[in-house]
Structures are given as C-alpha cells and as structure tokens.
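Intended use. Records like the one below are meant for learning the mapping from a protein sequence to its folded structure. Do not use them to infer anything beyond what is encoded.
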Amino acid sequence: MKSLPRLLAAAAVLAAAQSAVAVTLPVNTFTTLPGTTVAAEPQLAGVVLEDQVQAFSFNNGSGMVSGTVQSRVVRSSVDGTLDFYWRVISDRSSAGNIDSFRLGRFVAPEYNGNWRSDGLGSVAPDAAYHFGVPSTAYVNFLFGHTQGDPTLAPGSESYFMLLDTTATSYAKTALYDMTVAGSGYISDSYATFAPAVPEPSGYAMLLLGLAGVGMAAARRRG
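Structure written out for the chain above:
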C-alpha cells in the first residue's frame, strides 16, 4: 500500500497537470493565463512547420525599443491540428518595457490560449484579452496586467505564447504589434501566421460540391 505522503504528492501532480491547460478566451474578457506544458497537454507536442524570426524597432519618445519576435507553427502529433506560437526577445539596449503583444486578424473557430512554461524564456504573460468580431478578431497577451507581475524589460525574453486551434492549414494573414508600458507608443504591424480562411471562391466551390453530392444522392434514391 502506498504511503500517505506519496499519495498526496501524486494528487498534487495530477491537480497541477489538470489546471495547467490551454484556457478558453471569452470575448471582451481579461483571462488569467496559468501556463502549460506538453506533459499537461500532449497534443501540444508535434512537428515545427514554420519558425521565423523578425526584428522590430520603434521610438517610444525617449529612445528606440527593439528586439525580435519568433513566430512558430506546430502540427500536433496527436490530432494533426495546428498550434501557433510567439516569443518576444527584448534587446539589452532597448529603451522601454513591453507590456503587451497584440495579435490581429487571427480568425479561428475558438480561442484557447496560454504560454509554455517548459520552453525557452523567463517572463510570462499573466493575462490575455480577446476582442472584436470573428473576421477581425484580436488577442492581446499582457505582461504586468496583474500588479506585481513583470513587464518585458530590456534584455529579457518571454516564454512562448500560444493559441491552440482546430485548424489544419495556415497562411501568413495575421498581424502583430507591441506596446510600451505607460507610454502609449505602439510598434509597427508585422505579418504572422494564422489559420487559413477560405477565399469567397473557395466557399463557392465548397457549396457547389455539397450541392453535387446532394443531387447524386437524390438520383440514387430515385
């Protein structure tokens, strides 16, 4: 029979694994992000399809804020769906603290977000804010939203922030930018990856295909 301390330890590990999962992001709501791992969510493990690094710089009124953003697309080895990742690396010489990483035009059937505590980085976003209509949806990952939590200071790196989706294809159709804590300054917008959205012609072809299937079925019944 297992000892009580071992049972309690096992229960604590199980509780941590159950709580550290991708979090649904309701519209117009600040959502706390607890962090997650592949151990807690095995579907996050997979093959890296794209991994790009983009430099950024912008003036915040007192100097240049600069660094790089790493954008990554991963296909899950469990269910074949796509997960989208971003990591912000602030230069040591950067002139300000970054308090938000903002995604725009990221259209998905549902929004499940978090950050990976088992990957690179040292600063975690403490919350996310999802807003906008589906065709122009925005998701902001926030640093220092909770009093006492750190913003992304010069020389620091964020953990990988993620959106776990049910998409199976992607395109470089979303945008991101960053804001500097307490200044109101916003960086330029940069292109990044998002679930692929069919063009109107694609919807038309899909409808024609479904109509054709329906007619064929009707002929068989007749």
